[in-house]
Write a structure and sequence with these properties.
Helices cover 31% and strands 33% of the residues. By secondary structure, it is α/β, with parallel strands linked by helices.
Length: 147
């Protein structure tokens, strides 16, 4: 009898312990989020990101030659943003590329552009971020069109 009661109690306590452990997990740093976004962007898999959006994510595309206006779109989901970016691609061009992360500070994560850019490439230039309830979230992806 005592063994059955002990077993029943352990089954009740285990889910509570799992929840406590789950709550102790630290949220990802903004650098970790920026790395995840860069990887997903360059591999055309933004729709597979597990980063929750607290608000809409904005994508801004600037042309490297300064021609034309900046393209600005807002999306409710990562899936919608991936669908839109993919719709602009023809024969895998422009190729998506992200560079190494330089730093994240004052609401922006900047990527390294000291090596220059190539024609027919769409680069992840920087990310704007914010914090809500102590957790970082992505506001805007700034892209640079290599024209």
């Amino acid at each position: 009898m005592k063994l059955a009661v002990a077993a029943a109690l352990s089954l009740l306590v285990m889910p509570i312990e799992a929840q406590c452990i789950k709550k102790r997990v630290k949220p990802p740093t903004i650098e970790q989020l920026a790395a995840s976004v860069a990887d997903a962007y360059s591999s055309s898999k933004l729709d597979q990101l597990k980063i929750p959006l607290t608000k809409k994510v904005q994508i801004r595309i600037k042309h490297s030659l300064g021609e034309g206006q900046e393209i600005i779109r807002e999306f409710k989901t990562w899936q919608d943003s991936e669908t839109w970016l993919s719709s602009m691609s023809r024969d895998s061009l422009p190729a998506r590329e992200s560079r190494s992360l330089l730093s994240c500070k004052k609401g922006f994560c900047n990527y390294n552009f000291q090596a220059g850019i190539l024609h027919n490439h769409l680069y992840l230039k920087k990310i704007a971020y914010g914090y809500q309830n102590g957790r970082p979230y992505i506001k805007t992806l700034y892209l640079l069109d290599g024209d």
